[in-house]
Amino acid sequence: MTAPITRHLSRRGFIAAAAGTAGALLLPRAQAAEARAKPLVFAHRGASALRPEHTLAAYSKAIADGADYIEPDLVCTRDGVLVARHEADLTETTDVAKRPEFASRRTRKTFDGETHTGWFVDDFTLAELKTLRAVERIPQSRPGSAQYDGMFQLLTFEEVIDFVAAQSATTGRLIGLVPELKSSTYFAAAKLALEDRFIATLAAHEYTRRAPVEIQSFEVANLRYLRDKLGRRANLRLMQLVGVGAMQPSDVVAVRGKLTYAEMATPRGLRDVASYADTFAPPTRALIPLKKDGSLDAPTALAADVHAAGLRLETWTFRPENRFLAADFRDGAGEHARNEAGSVAEMRRYLQLGLDGLFTDDPALGRKAVDG
Known about the structure:
Protein name: glycerophosphodiester phosphodiesterase
Organism: Pseudoduganella armeniaca
GO biological process, one term: lipid metabolic process
Structural class: alpha/beta
GO molecular function, one term: glycerophosphodiester phosphodiesterase activity
């Protein structure tokens, strides 16, 4: 199950290997390989266009709508528990600001190069966090999701794994996990390093020893560490996320290094990424940028360069509201309006570049775009 394999296993070989070791819980090998021959649909924070992000409701909807993988972003509580939140700041995605018992914990912190004022996960124990409830991050654009505000608890990583394993057993469909380690440098400075906690959690669960797991980070040192500790396994890939231009990974900034995301996206930089990661994941507009009028420009060379380096190409993030679409695909219904046809059309345009996977806030639309 965990024997070394060649680093750049194909999509078909990767899924077949994982399915072949998973026993009756997962699809037969041939079915699984066939089911995953197409580009992968990653549910960004679950079905986050339709339900508050990183909740069981968001993950359940994503799986029902055909996502191949669900994404738990991982941060750490004061007492050392990994939980699914997009960042350390709890202000926009929970009801913490309305909880008078936690008013005194409002503070100011800096992570990933930005300073935030609010309430932070590492100032709360898991028991305290469990008293909070999730809310929609952008209610003006997603009122349908906002109607679920206050209904759902925050989740530990272990709870997410158990839920996905149960869904896989129930549906008979192989469902992957694409966890992102968030702000590793920040949590290490707080003596709450994510990596060993994450490795221990993977090892403790039968499902994550067998099912597909693709681990993401915008930092570099943590991915190198994970590659060294986890080795190369049939069910595991590492994904290097990147920003744009002169932005730098937080771990590089911490040591006053000079590496930028732009340098990582050059042919030379991509070869270096391929020495420790399997996937390169730039934002969509790094692949096809926008013109001044907001419409799509010509594609850059990045897609071809990524594949030439032997890396998979997976991009983030497609969202179904007009405000997030290129001008080519907007329908004139208002910036906050859902535009399903436009979102599918935009994803199909990017799929023409040879994507191996895409992140979307609405997996049903991603499934439609991929399936044709």
